[in-house]
Amino acid sequence: MFEESVKRSAFKAISWRVLATLTTALVVYFITGSTEFAVTIGLIEGIAKIGLYYFHERLWNRLNVGRRPGGHPADAATEPALPSPSQEHE
């Protein structure tokens, strides 16, 4: 069964936050014209949301919502196909 590792969750959280924080800072800059304000808001938002995302990811790793009994839903493509009803009686 596939399980998200702590290290992978942390790297995903950081990479996403870098992209999202840059977006936030750019939006704040375009609205206010203030580089200092944009950087401040970007840093506060980025730091807060890295932690929130990490814990959100770890919580979802504990839940079985949407998971198949045999493993991760993405593994479904590699699972053998079930025989069709006509093949069962051959």
Structural commentary:
- This protein is mostly helical.
- It has a domain at 14-65.
- Helices cover 66% and strands 0% of the residues.
- The protein has helices at residues 6-32, 35-62, 85-88.
- The longest helix is centred in the middle third of the chain and has 28 residues, at 35-62.
- The radius of gyration is 21 Å and the shape is elongated.
- The two termini are 32 Å apart.
Instruction: Measure the end-to-end span.
Output: 32 Å
Largest sheet: none
Order of helices and strands: HHH
Shape: elongated
Q: What amount of the residues lies in strands? A: under 5%
Low-confidence stretches: none
Number of H- or I-type helical stretches: 3
Structural class: mainly alpha
Radius of gyration, in Å, reads: 21 Å
Looking at how many chains there are and whether they match, the oligomeric state comes to: single chain
Please give the share of residues in helix.
Answer: 55-70%
Overview features:
elongated, 66% helix, 90 residues
SSE topology:
Blueprint: H1 6-32, H2 35-62, H3 85-88
Helix pairs in contact: 1-2
Summarize the structure.
This protein is an all-alpha fold and 90 residues long. It is built from 3 helices and no strands.
